[in-house]
Design goal:
single chain, mainly beta, Jelly Rolls, 7-stranded antiparallel beta sheet, 4-stranded antiparallel beta sheet, 11 strands, binds fe (ii) ion
Length: 187
């Protein structure tokens, strides 16, 4: 059965400069775990605070990146271009970005820049309202993954390691629609 939570995309995107020029990034939000994930979806675990910042890429960088996507996709929705930074504390051996659903978007294309073997986990709702893990993946630097961020997900971070992801955010277009359009890409 096809994975309905995430898919590795067999595509390349030129992201040069988007990551490298700090002045081109405008801070979009900064939150601690308690603020962003006020309702923990997984009650049995305790989570420490993970400083988590998001930025909006500069218009020129965003436009250059967007122009590389298939027009069929852009006709449906032009995604927002954000950069996400997660900074894992040094002293916490099992630090995790707590399970959550993204509030402002339903589908993401993640282009991984700085990774350290972190595991991205997906969950389903089980009896009693608890969530249980159904699948996971470990992205490597340069990988591009499509994710259904309307479903509960979490990231197991590595202590003292920073993680950076360039992410294309679809506010209304469901995962299946984006996947279908991208799977028709010429190889
Ligand atoms: Fe998320």
């Amino acid at each position: 059965m096809m994975n309905t939570y995430f898919a590795k995309l067999d595509m390349t995107l030129d992201t040069s400069d988007v990551f490298t020029d700090p002045a081109a990034l405008r801070c979009n939000g900064e939150y601690l775990r308690q603020q962003k994930y006020g309702v923990a979806l997984l009650r049995k675990k305790s989570f420490t605070s993970v400083p988590n910042r998001s930025y909006v890429a500069a218009d020129k960088d965003a436009e250059r990146l967007i122009a590389q996507l298939p027009q069929r996709l852009l006709n449906i929705e032009v995604p927002k271009v954000w950069v996400l930074d997660m900074q894992a504390p040094v002293q916490e051996p099992e630090v995790m970005l707590a399970p959550h659903v993204d509030g402002v978007r339903v589908t993401a294309i993640n282009i991984y820049s700085n990774t350290n073997g972190e595991r991205t986990c997906f969950y389903t709702y089980a009896a009693g309202g608890e969530i249980q893990e159904v699948d996971s993946f470990v992205a490597k630097d340069g990988d591009i993954w499509l994710m259904d961020v309307s479903k509960p997900h979490a990231v197991e971070l590595k202590p003292a390691k920073n993680r950076r992801v360039l992410t294309l955010s679809f506010i209304t277009t469901p995962f299946d629609v984006v996947r279908k359009v991208l799977s028709c890409l010429p190889s």
